[in-house]
Write a structure and sequence with these properties.
Elements: H1 9-17, H2 29-35, H3 37-52, H4 55-68, H5 73-85, H6 89-102, H7 107-119, H8 123-135, H9 142-155, H10 159-172, H11 177-190, H12 193-204, H13 211-224, H14 227-240, H15 245-253
Helix pairs in contact: 1-7, 2-3, 3-4, 3-5, 4-5, 5-6, 5-7, 6-7, 7-8, 7-9, 8-9, 9-10, 10-11, 11-12, 12-13, 13-14, 13-15
């Protein structure tokens, strides 16, 4: 099977978080507590091994979970994520389908399957699942599904619709880093440098700077003519991320004093 590209760290965190949905999104949990608690335990262990990068043990634990209780949705959800990470798309799709069948109102599972479908180019199917996730009034983090929908639309070159989704993510959680970063990037590319600066400033208040954010800062301040701010971003980029592609691009330009 063709391996899938590595997921961005924040996306993988969102996806794995979806495996640990609340009690209202675990219709089989009561049954598991009565007789199949080992399915729950193996699922939790499998997710932890997945996080650690121990995919072989994670797979063993998660497969054991569905052997114990084939109707335990969170185990299928986690298997979908793991098989997707391993590039085994057919197995991933099968487990994701089973997960949302068992958890029709499970927003975390719907969000995860939607992201998988978008990665396969099945944009409209993915967006429909994000909307189902968001429609659940018990979904604690709708900003995750809105952000993933925005990323899906960006990949499909629908920038206007992506902006709307990222803005809706910020309505749910004004401190959502990927939504802030992508809105900064989009407005910079449109030439709206003041708005791009505003989103970058908001981003700096919720997370440590990344090479991408600092490089955006360099170019935004250059476009706005603020040499001091441009220099500050450039120094931070060179000092904190000297081997990054962004720092190399800065060095190639040779414009910073």
């Amino acid at each position: 099977m063709r391996p899938m590209p590595a997921l961005p760290i924040f996306l993988l965190a969102i996806l794995l978080a979806g495996c640990q949905t609340g009690a209202q999104e675990r219709p089989s949990l009561a049954r598991a507590e009565e007789g199949d608690s080992m399915a729950v335990l193996n699922t939790q262990l499998g997710i932890e091994y997945f996080r650690q990068g121990n995919f072989e043990t994670a797979l063993m634990r998660l497969e054991r979970a569905v052997q114990i209780d084939e109707k335990y949705g969170p185990a299928h959800d986690a298997l979908g994520l793991l098989y997707a990470r391993l590039g085994q798309e057919q197995d991933a799709d099968r487990h994701f389908q089973r997960s949302v069948q068992l958890q029709p109102n499970g927003s975390g599972a719907l969000n995860n399957y939607g992201q998988f479908l978008c990665a396969q180019g099945r944009v409209q199917e993915g967006l429909a699942l994000f909307d189902r996730a968001i429609a659940n009034p018990l979904y604690a983090t709708p900003e995750n599904a809105h952000t993933n929908a925005g990323l899906c639309l960006l990949a499909a070159s629908d920038r206007m619709a992506a902006v709307e989704r990222f803005e809706r993510a910020l309505q749910s959680n004004p401190r959502m880093p990927p939504a802030l970063l992508n809105l900064c990037r989009i407005h910079f590319e449109k030439g709206d440098h003041l708005r791009a600066r505003a989103f970058l400033q908001r981003l700096s208040g919720v997370m440590a700077p990344t090479a991408e954010a600092l490089w955006l800062g360099v170019r935004i301040e250059r476009a706005l003519g603020d040499r001091d701010a441009e220099f500050a971003y450039a120094v931070a980029l060179r000092n904190n991320f000297p081997d990054s592609p962004e720092a190399m691009a800065l060095a190639t330009e040779g414009r910073i004093r």
